[in-house]
Design goal:
This protein has 2 domains: 144 residues; 119 residues, Cathepsin D, subunit A, domain 1. It is 46% helix and 19% strand. A hairpin with a 2-residue loop joins strand 4 and strand 5. 28% of the residues are buried.
Length: 274
């Protein structure tokens, strides 16, 4: 039996899947969603998928090149959609994309068995594929939301030493905290500077980002951490700590000092450090 693949259908289906995958990734990671950026990224992904089907020769070398191009394309899509998103965001996107594709395959298979679509050369219309993609996206987003709301709140105790000053802090575990230091790629703990009182330099307590104006010894321990929030992009002042103990265990992380409401805690810690 001969099957025909239409480039326009393939483009529409992959555009829909990529847009939904990026949208769900943003919602699950609490990243600000910008439709224009998502549209540009989805177009890039759809072009890649269409070209890979048309020009793939089927040999192992060709498949290897297309796989490498896929990883590069996915990383580019994440960076366009969510600015300086860390590499961990790529893993979330790939997981969502894989789950969404699997769910759509299940729905399409069930539709074929029920006779809603057939194996004729004209097959299912792009509208049918789009409908399956929307249903899959809605189910995936709902599942992710249920996982978030169903997860038990977790707090940990910590003991943090910065610039020779030590303080205890209660940290809220947040799976949506994907910040990382752009220099070392270490995960970032966001901490309210008030727990140290007035023992830290005033520039750190006030969130001064002109670190070049600080003393050389202090400046060497500081980092600028790009962050995204509901008000847009901003820079947080990060400090290389002397020591960070979480529930008695030492962890390797950067401390970003920022005033804020942390749901009754002193800061938030990425789930991967627990």
């Amino acid at each position: 039996m001969t099957y025909y693949i239409y480039a326009d259908t393939l483009f529409i289906v992959n555009f829909s899947m990529d847009f939904l995958s990026l949208f769900i990734t943003g919602k699950l990671t609490h990243s600000p969603v910008r439709p224009i950026r998502l549209t540009i990224s989805a177009v890039i992904g759809a072009l890649y998928a269409t070209l890979s089907v048309i020009f793939d020769s089927g040999d192992i070398y060709s498949r290897g090149l297309w796989f490498a191009a896929f990883i590069f394309c996915a990383l580019t899509m994440c960076r366009i959609s969510y600015s300086l998103g860390p590499k961990r965001l790529l893993l979330v996107f790939l997981a969502v994309n894989l789950g969404l594709g699997g769910l759509m395959s299940i729905l399409f298979g069930a539709a074929r068995r029920s006779g809603l679509v057939t194996d004729r050369s004209d097959g299912a219309s792009p509208l049918m594929f789009l409908l399956f993609a929307l249903i899959s996206g809605a189910v995936s987003l709902l599942y992710g939301r249920l996982r978030i709301f169903g997860s038990r709140r977790r707090e940990v105790s910590s003991r943090i030493t910065l610039l020779g000053e030590t303080a205890g802090a209660r940290l809220l575990c947040d799976s949506g905290n994907l910040l990382c230091d752009p220099i070392s790629s270490k995960p970032v703990i966001i901490l309210a500077p008030k727990i140290f009182g007035d023992r830290l330099p005033v520039e750190l307590r006030t969130g001064e980002t002109d670190i070049g104006a600080l003393s050389g010894s202090l400046c060497a321990k500081l980092r600028l951490i790009p962050a995204q929030g509901v008000t847009g992009n901003r820079l947080l002042v990060g400090v290389v700590p002397d020591e960070v103990l979480v529930d008695g265990n030492e962890v390797d992380a950067i401390i970003a000092l920022a005033d804020g409401s942390y749901d009754g805690c002193d800061g938030i810690i990425p789930e991967e450090l627990i």
